Amino acid sequence: MKTATSRVVTTLDVSVVVSACICGVFCGIYGLPFVRELNQRLNEADDMLSIYVAAGKQDRGKPRKGLAMLTLVGFFITGALALDIWVWYRIAHKMKKESQDSEANVLGYCPFYALYYILMMFHVLFAQSALGISNRFRRLNVALYHVFPEFNKTPIIEITSVSSTNNVSEKLDNAVEKIRGITTVSHVVHPQPLLTPDRVIEDLAYIHASLSTGVILVSNTFGVALLAVLGSCLLHLVATSYFLMVELVGDKDAVFSWIQALWLFIHIFRFLLTVEPCHITNVESRRTMAIVCNLMRTCQESSAKERLESFWRQLVGNNSAFTACGLCSIDRHIITSYCGAIATYLVILIQFKEADDKPLSKTGRRGFIKYFNETIYNNT
Fold first, then answer.
1. What single string gives the DSSP state of each residue in 129-158?
2. CA dist 336 to 12, 314, 329, 340, Å?
3. What is the CB-side half-sphere exposure of residue 152 using CA atoms within 13 A?
4. Those residues with Cβ within 8 angstroms of residue 275's Cβ, 6 or more apart along the chain or in another chain
5. 315 near 367, Cβ under 8 Å?
6. Complete DSSP assignment for 99-132
7. Which residues in the chain come in under a pLDDT of 50?
8. Which among 203, 222, 215 has a CA at the least distance from the CA of 131?
9. What pLDDT score does 162 carry?
10. Which of 138, 142, 144, 141 is nearest to 304 (CA)?
């Protein structure tokens, strides 16, 4: 931090991490009733959807995937922090001649590094909440295709083992089938509940409305924390890119450059861990409208078609989306906005750095002050 620009950027870098962690903790504490309501809605959706479509292997493995995501993120951030501390100890050892407290200053950043665990746990919590809603939307879309017979031509079949102690009649039947050239296996077709399409569409419309309310609950519960996290991602991407460019142009320390590149990758990963689950959920929610339109075009029953039209009007009026305090929608469109903002702020920081590297001389400062005073006098 040799220049004023570097000191300002570092101060902002630390401040946004602290503010994001504080907002995340307070949102988690005060938003606990809303989180419980969200879990109730998800459990209710699971109970209703299990009537129409069975949970696949991907759905049954969700808890393990969530635990694996948490473990990998924790392991990755631990390795990155360990490397960063080692790099700063390396730099402090080189500066030991100038300052005896350089290594002690590195230890002072350990509480700041611990905040990264809180920050990353919030990222994982939000991603799991968004992906949980997305999973229910996906199962709802699958159930919609099984409402009418023309979309449910393939029965659900389970392959079971055949007992070796079959009676004589079963052996004769199998022999006759083999003579006819028919190869069969023992299978069990799951009995489908005898529900009318009207009832199924009504239930699925209720589930979709409940999940859309869940999206609003997540946005309201974590809105302030999401705003702080998105701001921290923006400032971290700007600051890390700035320090990486300064190092590549200036001292050219290869180790420090690599650690800055690693942190740049981590901040990009943090940003995508927030944006991508929201985008997946929005895509699955909008896909329901396309499915309902296809069903309306092919449906022949008048009562079911009326239910589909009512469901379609509900989808048209649905404007639920993940937002950060209502200021911006969180989806892939925000990525282009971030790219433009990062490029703009990088240009500004580089110009400030050039001004710090080439300060005005005394003669230049006097000439500038004289010109400034003359300009003000002429204008007045």
1. HHHHHHHHHHHHHHHHHTSSGGG--S--EE
2. 23, 31, 13, 6
3. 16
4. 330, 331, 332, 334, 335
5. no
6. -TTHHHHHHTTHHHHHHHHHHHHHHHHHHHHHHH
7. 153-192, 360-365, 368-369, 371-372, 376
8. 215
9. 44
10. 144
Instruction: Please state, in angstroms and rounded to a whole number, the distance separating the CA atoms of residues 173 and 193.
Output: 31
Triad 136, 138, 143: Cα angle to 5°: 95
The three-state secondary structure class of 173 is: helix
Question: Residue 45 corresponds to which tokens in the numbers above?
Answer: 């959706």
How many Å apart are CA 40 and CA 22, to the nearest integer?
A: 27
Decide: 172 and 108 in contact? Cβ < 8 Å. no
pTM for this entry: 0.74
Q: How far apart are CA 90 and CA 74, in angstroms?
A: 24
Tens-digit pLDDT profile for residues 184-212:
333 333 444 556 777 888 888 899 999 99
Both tokens of residue 108? 């002072």
Q: Which ranges constitute the DSSP H helices of the chain?
A: 4-30, 32-52, 57-60, 62-94, 102-107, 110-145, 168-179, 197-221, 223-249, 254-298, 302-316, 333-357, 362-379
Q: Which candidate, 52, 48, 46, 54, places its Cα nearest to that of 158?
A: 54
Identity at 306, one-letter amino acid code:
E
CB-based contact 194:225 (threshold 8 Å): no
User: Is the dihedral angle over the CA atoms 85, 88, 89, 90 positive or is it negative?
Assistant: positive
Residue 200 φ/ψ, nearest 5 degrees: -65, -45
Give the C-alpha separation, 105 to 112, whole Å.
12
Strand 157-159 versus strand 187-189 pairing type: antiparallel
Residue owning tokens 């589909």: 308
Tokens of 349: 């920081």
Residue whose tokens read 């919590």: 125
Q: How far apart are CA 135 and CA 280, in angstroms?
A: 9
Which residue in 146, 354, 148, 167 sits closest to 246, CA to CA? 354
How high is the mean pLDDT of the chain?
75
Write out the two tokens for 146: 């099984």
DSSP per-residue letters across 256-274 = HHHHHHHHHHHHHHHHHHH
Tokens coding 83: 């490397």
Residues 255, 20, 72, 281: is their CA dihedral positive or negative? Answer: negative
Angle of CA points 35, 40, 46, to nearest 5°: 125
